[in-house]
Amino acid sequence: MDSKQGSGIRDQGSKASKQGSGVRGLRGLKDRVQGFEGSSGVRLAPVVNVIDKFAEKKICVIGDIIADVYIFGKPYRLSREAPVVVVKYEGQKIFPGSAGNTINNLLALGARVFPLGLIGNDSLGNKLFEYFLQHKTIDPTGLVRYKGNTTTKTRILAGDTHTSKQQVIRIDRESDTPVPQSAKKSLQKKLEELAPEMDAFIVSDYGHGTVDSNVIQYMKGLAKEKIVVGDSRYSLKNLKGFTMITPNESEAYALANLSESCSIGDVGGKIIEFMDLTALLVTRGNQGMSLFLKTGEVFHIPISGTDDVTDVTGAGDTVCAALTLSLASGTDFYHASCIANYAAGVVVMKRGTSTVSPEELKKAMEHYGTGH
User: Fold this and answer.
1) Residue 299: domain span
2) Does 74 fall in a domain?
3) E-state strands within the chain
4) What is the DSSP secondary structure assignment for residue 135, as one 8-state letter?
5) Residue 198 domain-assigned (yes or no)
6) How many domains, in total, are found in the chain?
7) Residues forming the active site
8) Whole-prediction pTM value?
9) 202 to each of 79, 125, 143, 354, how far by Cα in Å?
């Protein structure tokens, strides 16, 4: 493996000690990671130990929870009706998607999760609710049910018995019933009740209406004292004043209103200034990640592992979850970003909406962080 494709810690670690936590008004968030880099490799133990603290942390996620439906089949003949392949149904699985995937990743990493979201009272909504109830470290009281259909993304995956199945088509179904104001008020009330006890917050906005102006204004106030990480598919500008946001590269260029001829450095510098952020993490596919701090420091973190990616579905949710949980566990922005980078490196090698366990994360850090 090319050393440039490692986690980026070997290349950027020497700058980390200068960084500090940089969180506006957060007295408890300090750089507790010492001796991370070394001349003969990376001394990972202190950072790996951060993962052991994940189970102690209370993370609140507020956002759009949808159902990711995967239908698996085997192509076996051409249709007589049209020039298309007929796929024989073999089975299906349902997973939480969008903000639900962020919640699922936090649960997989061992956190105590307090989700705030709206779920339809249809059969798919029931299955999502049952899915979450399998976990002992979730508080489901913030999952508000309402009369309507659960927003769904259905992916058809086809392939032979002994081959990896590939996505053929995706069908999206959005709820045609407006969310009642009473449901939104219940969500806001629950948010205000939970806020004092939480270690960090994630706002996961996929444009389905859960994250409204009232939620955003409340989170901006919380960001003055607590960690608030934002991720929004269509409305990143609304997240001004948050602790941190995590757009992908195309979203970052659009937010900065700059053409692709501009450097990522120009993009990050402009965003962190006009968005009034403490930190900005831009995910860049096979180019890794770029971290920008309000202090003016910039860290470019190459990908973890190889660039032979299996599936990027939901990887941004994994990054947001691992990043926030690491910050809540006491590490700084740079090392939290590196941990998130490792987590993403694990999930992109899995099919579909996936998660990473603490054991998998530690194994990836130990493998790629020591030059193997």
Assistant:
1) 3-66+97-150+176-368
2) no
3) 37-38, 41-42, 58-63, 65-78, 85-98, 112-120, 143-146, 152-158, 166-173, 200-205, 227-232, 244-245, 279-283, 289-293, 298-301
4) -
5) yes
6) 1
7) 317
8) 0.84
9) 46, 22, 15, 18
